[in-house]
Amino acid sequence: MSLSRLSYFVIGYMILAFLWWAFHLWEQNERLYLQQLVLLEYKYPEESGSIQRDADYNKIRGAWESGKRMVVAEGLFFTVCLVFGLWVIRRSADKEVSLARQRRNFLLSITHELKSPIASLRLVIETMTRRTLRDDQREILLKNGLKDADRLQGLVEELLLAARLEDKWKPSLEDVNLKVLVEDCRDAMLARSPGAEIIVSAPDGWPIIRADYTGISAVIRNLLENALKYAPGNAPVRVTISKRDGNCRIVVADQGPGIPDSEKKRVFEKFYRIGNEETRKTTGTGLGLFIVSQIVKAHDGRIELGDNTPSGAVFTITL
Predict the structure, then answer these.
(1) What confidence tens digit (pLDDT) does each residue in 229-267 have?
(2) How many C-beta neighbours within 10 Å does residue 49 have?
(3) Rounded to the nearest 5°, which phi and psi values hold at 199?
(4) Helix 135-166 and helix 288-298, axial crossing angle in degrees, nearest 10
(5) pTM of the model
(6) What is the pLDDT of residues 127-164, one digit of tens each?
(7) 3-class DSSP state for residue 48?
(8) Distance CA 308, CA 227 (A)
């Protein structure tokens, strides 16, 4: 018998046992009431109108009605407890299933993310050790190897940062020029993706803000990487910096397929990625948007996800 069927069997047994218990209590209360009425008739055979008889009768009837209310109240309390317990159990079970699925997706994605650069580095090393190469060929191989090494280093740093964020990470505040920070992140992304287009819009004379430079840099890099990953062709990614109501706003907009409304709240969960991990074509570990949300939260900020026009996603960060 499966665990699900066993759970339904136990629940059904509890409900039937409660109904049987309630029925017997109700019947016992009725029998006691009738017996007390009979005893009352024997006690006052000819004084049906006496004050004492009326007082005893009211007392018996009050006890009878109190017994009925007790059965009903306990029944309602039991029902509420049972429903609440079932809700808690179901929610916990769904959460465990979701976490297990996310862990499985993470293992599949991290295996793929590690396997590709490791295989590429192995190929580079084997080629250089087994063949005599010209200087230009060796330079190309070394550049590819360094690129794969950087990819591995970035993956390791991402995993370490995610672990630190779960351990109540606190930002180390310092003076940060947000415009310069965003432009540095843009230049770093363009160096990795030369064909990409990232447009940064910010007013001149942008004021200095207090923030964790490394943390906010990780936020911008993850959002830009996510936008470039899903942007069709060389569609531009726009980053707009502005100030509203005394807060700094960073808006990252892409022209990708967008994110369905049903998935918008879940994309910030750890390891969560849209779609099937086994058939996915895009790379990633499911940690990028989790890292973004946790860093923004640690800065007492907020992040919002909306739709771009005519297609794509818009991430708005308020600090």
Answers:
(1) 877 777 888 888 888 777 888 888 888 877 877 777 778
(2) 8
(3) -105, 120
(4) 50
(5) 0.59
(6) 888 877 787 888 888 888 887 787 787 777 777 777 77
(7) coil
(8) 12
Q: How far apart (Å, rounded) are the C-alpha atoms in residues 33 and 20?
A: 20
In three-state secondary structure terms, 318 is strand
- Listed in sequence order, the residues at least 6 apart from 16 whose beta carbon sits closer than 8 Å to its beta carbon are none
Tokens matching residue 311? 């297609």
Specify the amino acid at residue 36.
Q
Q: Are 86 and 7 in contact (CB under 8 A)?
A: no
Amino acid at 288: G
What are the two backbone dihedrals, phi and then psi, of residue 249, each rounded to the nearest 5 degrees? -120, 130
- Phi, psi angle pair for 232, to nearest 5°: -75, 130
- Residue 119 carries which side chain, given as an amino acid letter? A
Sequence-ordered list of residues with C-beta below 8 angstroms from that of 151, at least 6 positions apart, any chain? 117
Sequence-ordered list of residues with C-beta below 8 angstroms from that of 178, at least 6 positions apart, any chain: 202, 206, 209, 211, 216, 241, 248, 250
Task: Give me the residues paired with residue 287 across strands.
Answer: none
pLDDT tens string 24-35: 888 888 888 888
Strands 237-244 and 198-201: parallel
Question: Beta 237-244 vs 302-307: how paired, if at all?
Answer: unpaired
Of 318, 296, 312, 319, nearest in space to 238 by CA:
312
- Pull the structure tokens for residue 189: 């992304």
Place of tokens 């942008």: 206
Secondary structure in 3-state letters for 216-277: HHHHHHHHHHHHHHHCCCCCCEEEEEEEECCEEEEEEECCCCCCCHHHCCCCCCCCCCCCCC
